[in-house]
Batch of 2 targets.
Target 1
Amino acid sequence: QGLDNPISLQLPQFQMASMCAQRGKMGADSIPFTSLDQLLKAAEAVDLGNMSLAQAILARLNQRLSPQGQPLQRAAFYFKEALAKHVMGTGTPIPTHNDTSPVDVLNKIIAFKSFCEFSPLPQFAHFTSNQAILEAVEKEDSIHLIDFDLNFGGQWASFLQEIALRPGGPPKLRITTVASQSMELQLTQDMLYEFAKDLNISLEIRVISDRWLECLTAQMFQINEGEAIVVNFTFTLNNLLAQFSSNLNLTNFLQLVKSLSPKVLTVVDMESPCQGSSFFQQFLDSLQFYAFLFDSLESTSLSKENVLRIENFVFAPRIDNIMAARTRQNEKHPQWQSLLSGAGFSPLCISLVAETQAECLVQNRSYKVVKNEGTILLCWHGRALVSASAWSC
């Protein structure tokens, strides 16, 4: 990749000044040298606890960065917006959707639908995770899915289609999610109920209306005797882990999950290495990751308008949550793989069926499916974007 490609920059390999110096040209509408330099200086100021300096720098950047242009420029804009919110104390560490307008919900639905239809990332996530679940509950008559982020239910619509084909009839299905009541959640529930009805599947959806994960208890999940428990983290585990105020509370949460005795725990997440390092390094890592991610969206048949909509309504909230968590974190959490192992979970081998299925989804040569010690990765230009793994107690 040449210097005119913004994604050629391996951000974490450089200190701030040398990184900017070696960035190279990015096209006529690329991010100005001084803007990227200033954004990184704002992140450095946050790292050093100098919030007044960070605020002054970010204020100067308001007219200099735009959600248009090259992938790095667009990523930098959203990181600037998120950093400004949380430095100035207007951010929230846990996302809430109760005040989302109907127009925003509609735009998010359109964005998420486009993302699922045209990008291999959600397809890889859903198919790989569902395959591991199907293999684990192959002979079960009653399944209880515990999902910590239903999103718009796309993964479970696909799962419903699969179990509807089971010889002898589909099993009973319960879904429990931890979420705030919202228009988005209600639409998702209605869609899944209607879909299950069309497939003659018995479905029950429960919502634990408590987003503060540190307050959860096993009794809240109302586990029934004889049902197979499945715990699913799709595009949510890294974000969840960052919300805990201490490693002790985080350990207690994972022990709670283990106490539910799931037949399988599936994890699919963005491979953004945000834990266990300084805020400044986390900022660099995350900025690089989203620049790669935004670049990958341009390789699809999505229109420019839809790419920008996906970035604004699907990924900007995730960036906002990253900055919210990082700016308030007092302790550094270990990587989630170490945390799961420490809690008593063991990684399962990804089946050949799941691996073959993942490779079939990838049509662009710049994508590559890589298997690494029980984890399957979807990479873009050699950079891991999504990882999928399955775990047992």
Target 2
Amino acid sequence: KQWYQRRVRDTNYFINTNLSVCKMSDPAAFAHEFTAIYYKTFTESRDKLHQLYHPQALLTFEGAQVSGQEAIHNKLKGLPMQQVQHAVTTIDVQPVPAIEGAFIIQVLGQLKADNDPPHGFTQVFTLFPYNGGNVIVNDMFRLALHNA
């Protein structure tokens, strides 16, 4: 947990060599720690969330796709919600074959934004090794809304 506490104080957040120890020995623990960091940062410091992304990352948020760290920063910072809470239900993780240290993480949970009722959501991250740590290269987010 020491690498987590240091990363929260660092401006580079998730790009941290200590992460390698956790991810190689237990991918599930890596995925849980990553999602804890991601959603804590989303809630407390959304303006810094883009630092978890690769400079050429892709984000698809509710069907709208943006590319690059700056565009991701603008998209996430521009979301209309002021207060956000994520309740994670399940986290699944798979290593990416042929790319050591890369993972696909799928999150299922509930999102509570401002005064809106909670909504289910799913989010899928692809993380690749980068500069001694891991960064998000792909992120797909979708609310679980059904229009009858």
